[in-house]
Design brief:
Elements lengths: L1 H26 L2 H9 L1 H19 L2 H8 L1 H20 L4 H29 L5 H30 L2 H21 L13 H10 L1 H31 L4 H29 L3 H20 L5 H27 L7 H28 L5 H16 L16
């Protein structure tokens, strides 16, 4: 039984790498691609609409998992994900591309949640920080490779090729998951209403603070994913080949740091200090980006690199902190943790649109810096002791 679990855990690690790679090929190009059809001022609204739909779907995750199991949930979502990539790669009208991108963004959030259910069920009981760090490491290797490949493909043949590559990678993922997880058995899911999980989180300082910190991190990601590619390509005039290199170097920080950060978290038994340091690095780098007088590829790339050193640190600490207390058979709280990602894609583009109405494009990064300082403060309220037990939130 132990060998079987160990083997399936390895399969989940591989799936995470492939899923991250497939998503990263288009992660930083989606906004620029769809901008050609709807204009830059409406890009944020499209992301917000997709995020609201994701949140509504994830609030029903518990009953769905109990009825169908996580494998069925994963493959059903993956089918829609693959179809959306197929439409985005095809020369169809703009309306179909917009609908396909909405489906793509929704199913990406759902698949990420499902993948975390797989991991949490199969993770070892000892060395959980190290296991989560390795999980994040493999995912971020894929994320690092994606923009580099995307930059080459776009300069050679346009945006459609990135979706073809994403579909190819996801097809390989589906085969690996189907074969490698054939013996996977779901835990007995013990869920209450989503509203109950939400109330419990508000009452429990441990969960409230770590989910708040994760939300601010995801807000940072959403803001940068939507606006950074437009800033670099449209306002600074960088080629996509150059942008792909900048993003790949920037994302290398996650590959370098995730695994050692997991070991450090296990050793310290505390994540709060490193999370605070990470937010400070993120805030300082985006403030510098806003105040940069003569942006060059090197200076912008260096600041983005520093920002992701901070983001990698915060990501590792918040995920390790959360998964030390979340129970594997309770998808309600895990869904709430996953919901902050789409929620960030509702609020970040809306606030970004308001900021763009009154500020020059470059100064919206200063607005982001102020928000990140809130994360710096929240980090100091994370629980110090790593071995507490979070009581059930069920009514």
């Amino acid at each position: 039984m132990h060998k079987k679990t160990h083997r399936m855990r390895g399969i989940v690690y591989l799936i995470n790498f492939l899923f991250s790679f497939a998503g990263a090929v288009t992660l930083y190009t989606n906004s620029s691609y769809i901008e050609n059809s709807i204009g830059p001022e409406k890009v944020g609204l499209l992301y917000a609409l997709s995020a609201i739909a994701s949140i509504l779907i994830l609030t029903k995750a518990g009953p769905t998992l109990k009825r169908f199991g996580n494998k069925t949930y994963f493959f059903a979502s993956g089918t829609f994900y693959a179809l959306s990539l197929l439409v985005l790669s095809a020369p169809v009208n703009a309306i179909l591309h917009i609908i396909a991108l909405i489906v793509y963004l929704i199913t990406m959030n759902v698949l990420l949640f499902s993948l975390n259910i797989f991991f949490h069920h199969l993770e070892p009981k000892k060395g959980r920080g190290l296991a989560r760090g390795f999980f994040l490491l493999l995912g971020n290797v894929g994320i690092m490779l994606g923009p580099f490949c995307a930059g080459k493909i776009i300069d050679l043949g346009g945006y459609a090729g990135t979706y073809v590559l994403g579909l190819l990678i996801f097809s390989i993922l589906a085969i690996v998951a189907y074969v490698g997880l054939s013996e996977y058995k779901d835990t007995t899911y013990d869920f209450g209403k989503f509203e109950s999980a939400f109330r419990h989180t508000l009452r429990t300082r441990t969960l409230r603070n770590v989910i708040s910190a994760n939300f601010i991190l995801q807000f940072f990601y959403a803001w940068m994913v939507v606006y950074t590619p437009i800033y670099l390509s449209k306002y600074l005039g960088f080629s996509w080949d150059t942008i792909g290199i900048i993003f790949s170097v920037m994302l290398a920080t996650f590959v370098i740091l995730d695994y050692p950060l997991g070991k450090i978290a296990d050793w310290l038994g505390s994540e709060k200090e490193l999370a605070a340091l990470g937010f400070l690095l993120m805030a300082g780098s985006v403030f510098s980006l806003a105040l940069l007088n003569t942006p060059t590829a090197f200076t912008v790339g260096a600041l983005l690199f520093v920002s992701r050193i901070g983001a990698a640190t915060v990501e590792s600490m918040t995920e390790i902190h959360f998964f030390k207390v979340a129970r594997e058979n309770d998808p309600g709280v895990i869904a709430l943790f996953a919901d902050v990602r789409p929620l960030s894609y509702v609020l970040a583009p809306l606030l970004g649109a308001l900021a763009l109405a009154v500020l020059p494009f470059q100064m919206i990064f200063a607005v982001l810096g102020i928000i990140l300082m809130i994360g710096f403060v929240v980090s100091f309220y994370l629980e110090k002791n790593a071995e507490w037990w979070v009581p059930s939130h069920r009514d």
